[in-house]
Structures are given as C-alpha cells and as structure tokens.
Design brief:
By secondary structure, this protein is an all-alpha fold. Helices cover about 85% and strands about 0% of the residues. The termini are far apart.
C-alpha cells in the first residue's frame, strides 16, 4: 500500500504521474480513432460500407468508454476526486455493457459467418475475434475497481485494460497499409505497446510495478492465443 508521502506526492499539483497517465490515455484514444476512422468515425466521408445496427452500437459504446477514460484521467489531473468517484460508479456499469455487448457482437458475427458450427469452432472463432482480449479487459477493470482505494494499482490496471482493447485498432491500421501478415503485425504492435508503457512507467519510478507486470502478461498471453486462433 502507498505510504502517506507517496499518496501526497501523487495528488500534489503538477505531479508527473498525473500528466503521464493523461498523456498515455490520449495516445490510446488517438490509436483507436485512427484505427476505426475509415470503418466508423469517418466512413461517411471515406465511402466505406454501411454498418449493421449491432456494429454501430458496439462502436458507440466503445467510444463512450474511451471518452469516459479520458475524462477520468483529466479529472484526476485536475484533482477533481469527487467527480472522478461519481463517474467511476457509472463507469463500472458501462464497463459491464462494453464486455456484454462486445461478446454479443462477436457471437452474432460467428453465427452469421459460421452457422451450425460446433462449440469448439465457435470458441476458436471467438478467440480469433479478440474475445479473450475483451474478457481480459473486463477482468482488469473489475480488479482495478476493487482496488480503487489503492490508486497506484488502480490507475495502472485501468491503463493496461485500455491497452487490452487496442488489437482491433492495430489490425485495421495495418490492413490500411498492407493485407499481408496483418495478424502478426498486430501482435507485434501489442508487444511493443505493453513493453513501452511498462518501460516508461518503470523509468519514472525506478522499478516495474506489479500491476504492469501481471496485467501486461495477461494482455500479451491473450494476444498470443488470439494470434494462434487466427492463423491456426
């Protein structure tokens, strides 16, 4: 648990920890926007295919979550702890919606693309469609909320949870450039992301925080499983 001194430093004006996490949140938001710009955010201008209602709602829910995450990190940087806690309660409900509706969207795609598939095929396809990453996201958020009174763990787990949502955005970014080895490139970018965020945090604090170690390991393992399901 943080010492009184560490908590005081983390909540002091202009503390680098707060700026670092706000900057990290902005980087993740930009990656997600760029990844889904052609197929979602800018599709009316780029002339891409129409979306199903489920896909549109899924994108809307995910956008709400990203905006909530940005708002929460901004509130912490401005020491608006009361507002942060109120939004955190609503955020817990939104996180549940993200996981449930995300799983529904994946299962609906599986039913449409592989009607009558057995349970093993459905599970492998669920994994290939980043279903494991979505479940890891939910587990990280749930753990972060449980440990919300330990801010040094809470904020890192929330950041790692956001990183867990990046594979679809990375896949689309790569596909915009080349259609060869998209899955491998997305996996490589996930490894780079986890390592860079972890290294940056470790350099700031002189050690690798366990939240990054275990959370990052869970994210990378889920992405290796996803890659194997995609190319298997």
């Amino acid at each position: 648990m943080n010492s009184v001194r560490e908590i005081g430093e983390a909540n002091s004006p202009r503390h680098p920890v707060q700026g670092k996490f706000l900057g990290s949140a902005l980087v993740i938001a930009v990656i997600m926007f760029l990844g889904f710009s052609r197929n979602y955010y800018l599709r009316h201008w780029l002339g891409t295919r129409n979306l199903s209602l489920a896909a549109y709602l899924h994108g809307l829910i995910m956008t709400m979550w990203v905006l909530l995450f940005l708002t929460q990190t901004f509130l912490i940087s401005r020491h608006r702890l009361a507002c942060h806690r109120v939004l955190g309660t609503a955020g817990a409900g939104l996180a549940i919606v993200v996981v449930i509706f995300g799983c529904y969207t994946i299962l609906a795609d599986i039913a449409r693309q592989s009607p009558g598939a057995d349970l093993m095929v459905q599970w492998e396809t669920f994994v290939a469609f980043d279903g494991i990453s979505l479940l890891v996201f939910g587990g990280l958020v749930a753990t972060a909320l449980y440990l919300r009174k330990r801010p040094e763990i809470h904020r890192r787990l929330m950041l790692v949870a956001m990183i867990a949502l990046l594979p679809p955005a990375f896949g689309r970014l790569v596909a915009n450039v080349t259609h060869q080895h998209v899955e491998l490139a997305a996996l490589f970018l996930m490894f780079v992301s986890v390592l860079l965020f972890s290294a940056f945090d470790a350099l700031r604090h002189g050690r690798l925080h366990p939240a990054f170690l275990w959370g990052g390991a869970a994210v990378l393992i889920s992405n290796v499983l996803t890659y194997r399901a995609q190319v298997g």
